[in-house]
Amino acid sequence: MALCFALGSTCFLIGPFPGYAQLVGDSADAVTFFVGSILFTAGGALQTWLAWPDRRVSGGGRAAWYAALVQSAGTLFFNVTTYQAMHVALTSPEYDKLVWRPDWRGSICFLVSGAIAYRASRRRGWLPERGGSGWWQPAVNLLGCIFFGISAIAGYLVPATGSMIDQAAANWNTALGAACFLACALDTLHTDRASKLPLRQRLARLEHELNDDLREAT
Predict the structure, then answer these.
(1) pLDDT for 44-59, tens place per residue?
(2) Looking at residue 51, what DSSP letter applies?
(3) CB-based contacts of 210: which residues, under 8 Å, 6+ apart?
């Protein structure tokens, strides 16, 4: 799961940079976004599968299930829009606009998912409670969702003029959001602990580790 999110985030991180598009071309740049969306969907599916056993557990289990499910829906919206952008880039050589911007429906799903995960995390008031590995992940993940939301607004196509509200802002906020997601994914790979997973699963893992230590001690 974390590897899929890490690779997908990398695609969305490098894709918006003009230098990358100039290096590989608009078509390859559009393919990069589409591949990233597929990796996001794979990560979301694995996250949903991991949250499934504790979906009826009140508190962390139920929140993890809802967060994973809503986020997975958002990745499907991104699949559609990145495919459309890739199709346009591959079939229209004169295409020179923004290759892709976060779909507003997918961005809303990400925002809702991030808010659910953050609300279920350990906090002191509005701020996350420090302590333990990955304590910052829900906040950074939510920040990434906010950046994607800003990008969706900045990349809105004005019907009257056919131009973007702010293409540079759309690109930069896409990259910043992807950087937040990448940081969370890399931390999960490093610590083997995802802050979005149900608390019950973490406790079960801890109990298993303690039992192993007791067996070794005896």
Answers:
(1) 999 999 998 888 887 7
(2) H
(3) none
